[in-house]
Amino acid sequence: MSDITVVHLVRHGEVANPDGILYGRLAGYHLSDLGRRMADRVAEHLATRDVTHVVASPLERAQETATPIAKAHGLDLATDARLIEADNVFQGKTFGVGDGALKRPENWKHLVNPFKPSWGEPYVDQVVRMMGALDAAKDAARGHEAVLVSHQLPIWIVRSYVERRRLWHDPRRRQCTLASLTTFTYQGDKIVSVGYSEPARDLVPPHLLAGAKPVKGKDKAFGA
């Protein structure tokens, strides 16, 4: 058996969310038609890879993104709660660039510490659970490849940890576009490289690409 194992962390596709809600861990948010096309594109991209294990966050958008990937390899889809979206006190509300949320006094108490952060699940806690999910997938697919479908913030945080960057950051600078792959290569039990690719880039609305300039009314923090 090879001592090289590859684990792909996939961000789910676009979600149907016409009201611009920060949906976080709320149930009932499914992929849009475009999101399903993104999921199919990722499945096609990975179809020839040596994938032996597919896992998803319990949230619908992640499950729906992972389903065609598992089907393409004839695998059952597993669920790991450690891959879930980060908790956030603004869940269920609109909260984004240009909507005045930062000016509302009732929100100020949640914005006092961007380093933890004070408005949601601590970054350190996200690292712990995501590293646990990565290690479990590496063990399950040892010598082959695994696919884990998760959400933007936890994917970016665990990548930042592995690449030894600070965990607090500007959310607009995350390199973790919809339906993107953040790929960890292990030699034995050690991560030796991290890669990034966007097989559905041409399907992603331009204002949602990494580093895009915020667009008022289109850049709400929907959850990821």
Automatic annotation (TrEMBL):
Enzyme Commission number(s): 3.1.3.-
CDD domains: HP_PGM_like
A Pfam family reported for this protein in Swiss-Prot or TrEMBL: His_Phos_1
Protein's UniProt name: Histidine phosphatase family protein
PANTHER family in the cross-refs: BROAD-SPECIFICITY PHOSPHATASE YOR283W-RELATED, PHOSPHOGLYCERATE MUTASE
Signal peptide as annotated in the record: none
Keyword Hydrolase: yes
Species assigned in the record: Streptomyces ossamyceticus
Enzyme superclass (EC): hydrolase
Entry keyword set: Hydrolase
Domain of life, per lineage: Bacteria
A GO term, aspect molecular function: hydrolase activity
Organism classification: Bacteria, Bacillati, Actinomycetota, Actinomycetes, Kitasatosporales
